[in-house]
């Protein structure tokens, strides 16, 4: 089966300029890593020529000078002591403005006027606010709140005293539970209580034996002359082999 194919494989010749062959070569060139970096490798072999006045070098130097702290402060150091136009610091507007801002931000100077005047306040003793504060202090004072009143003397047969005693007796826990003292130590059987009777009734309702009667326990006698029995006998005689 494969003998003819093996013989034909050695005799097949494909032209090198067919479209499929050219497309395969182009795809191989596109995906070739060696061809992809060939130009870069050849450029590295040639070396490079970087002059001192090249644009990238000059840009790097300028960036370094700008970022340098020494170059940043060089102009300021040269201009120290060469201010012209102000003989004192008070005449310089910038220094005056800085001193004014410092005074405004100083907390001690900000509170100086308050501390100087807080001890010079004079309030009359009969002012409305003082009187209101005194009344408020009296209301919230614990001493006045807990001041005991004088002892009252009441007759024992007064109506309000009798009514208070009855109210105290009704509210007293000992009097409220005094009618249960005679029950202490007395035994009690639960038979006949409401809960026991209720449980028994529920048990009778759920009892399967009382709810249903089994068929074998029922007495049943079949009637021999009923139509279905007669018809059954006739059918048995018709299909009887005897």
Automatic annotation (TrEMBL):
PANTHER family: NEBULIN. The lineage of its organism: Eukaryota, Metazoa, Chordata, Craniata, Vertebrata. One of its GO terms (cellular component) is Z disc. It comes from the Eukaryota. One of its GO terms (biological process) is cardiac muscle thin filament assembly. This is NEBU protein. Keywords: Actin-binding, Repeat. One of its GO terms (molecular function) is actin filament binding. SMART domains: NEBU.
């Amino acid at each position: 089966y494969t003998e003819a194919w093996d013989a034909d494989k050695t005799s097949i010749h494909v032209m090198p300029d067919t479209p499929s062959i050219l497309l395969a070569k182009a795809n191989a060139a596109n995906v070739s890593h060696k061809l992809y970096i060939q130009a870069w490798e050849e450029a590295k072999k040639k070396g490079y020529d970087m002059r001192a006045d090249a644009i990238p070098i000059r840009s790097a130097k300028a960036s370094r000078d700008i970022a340098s702290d020494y170059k940043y402060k060089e102009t300021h150091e040269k201009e120290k002591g060469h201010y012209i136009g102000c003989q004192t610091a008070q005449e310089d507007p910038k220094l005056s403005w800085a001193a004014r801002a410092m005074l405004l931000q100083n907390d001690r100077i900000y509170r100086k006027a308050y501390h100087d005047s807080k001890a010079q306040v004079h309030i009359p003793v009969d002012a409305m606010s003082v009187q209101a504060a005194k009344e408020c202090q009296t209301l919230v004072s614990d001493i006045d709140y807990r001041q005991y009143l004088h002892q009252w003397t009441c007759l024992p047969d007064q109506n309000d005293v009798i009514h208070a005693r009855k109210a105290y007796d009704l509210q007293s826990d000992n009097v409220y539970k005094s009618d249960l003292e005679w029950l202490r130590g007395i035994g009690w059987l639960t038979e006949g209580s409401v809960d026991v009777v209720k449980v028994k009734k529920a048990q009778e309702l759920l009892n399967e034996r009382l709810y249903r009667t089994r068929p074998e326990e029922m007495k049943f006698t079949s009637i021999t002359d009923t139509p279905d029995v007669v018809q059954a006998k006739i059918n048995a005689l018709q299909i009887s082999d005897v």
